[in-house]
Amino acid sequence: MKILLIDVGNSNIVIGLFEDGTKLFQDRTETGRNWDSLCFMNELETIFFSHSISGNAVDGAIISSVVPDLNPVLSSAIRRFTGKNPMIADRSHIDIPVRDYDMSLLGMDRMVDMIAAREKYGAPLIIYDLGTCTTMSTLDAEGYFNGGMISPGVQLGLDAEAQKTAQLPELMADSPKALLGNDTVSCMINGSVIGTAAMIDGIHERVAEEMNLDVEKLPLVLTGGLGRLVLPWMKHPACFEPDLLLNGLEILYRKNVPMTSSEAVLQ
Q: Is the pLDDT of residue 251 over 50?
């Protein structure tokens, strides 16, 4: 069964196609906040054509979105391209228990990350997702979501430095060459990338202490597009899962849509 997985982030939309748990392809496009359904359908057609797969081959689809205004546009495009109604992932599909947390603004991306990480690593654990923002979510030993953190992402920090100062340049995040920068550009890159690695290491230690665990007993799962830049500079081991959110969407789809059905109608 081929499942189309759509992860709508603030900066990018990740598009994946899985068949029986195996990834056939993954692609991404910039999040077009002014798109209509035809624009996104054209994106889908281009991506599927590049992988020599027809939209008619899709058996079902699921969307996770932190940009809810785009959901109707994307749903319409998917229906036109595949003939299937996409499942829109929401809190009712998430079986993570919660301790003392206001869920009203909790991003769907974080919830889906938790589903995927728990499925593979159990609990307790920490999940870091390095996207537009750097988000951290924790599951305690009983599998409860008990809080986390949100901080500016690696690229967002660089963007803010350029926008809020008179002389610092606009830069794209890149791999540091050494710990210490030897010019303004490398200092900015290192501060953003290595600074994020140091933050993750330090918070990992503090959360382990709060949970009365040795840090080695608290697995850390790292995901997100910028994870590859940060991972080499971390002191503590981390499990890098670049497809974590897509895996979580595939799990949610399997749990919520009967596999005997050729069309998802959950909304």
A: yes
Where residue 122 falls (left for φ over 0; alpha for ψ -120 to 50; beta otherwise) is left
User: How many residues does the structure list for the chain?
Assistant: 267
Binding-site residues for K(+): 129
Return mean pLDDT, the chain.
Answer: 93
The structure tokens 């002014």 sit at 34
- Catalytic positions are 109
Instruction: Give the full edge-to-edge strand order of the sheet including 2-8.
Output: 22-30, 12-19, 2-8, 60-65, 87-88
Domains of the chain in start order, with CATH, are 2-88 (3.30.420.40), 98-251 (3.30.420.40)
* pLDDT for residue 236 is more than 90: yes
Annotated binding site, which residues?
Answer: 7-14, 107-110, 129, 132, 184
- 189-224 pLDDT per residue, tens: 999 999 999 999 999 999 999 999 999 999 999 999
Q: Cα–Cα distance between 179 and 186 in angstroms, integer?
A: 10
Kindly tell me the sign of the dihedral angle through the C-alpha atoms of 120, 124, 130, 131. positive
pLDDT at 152: 96
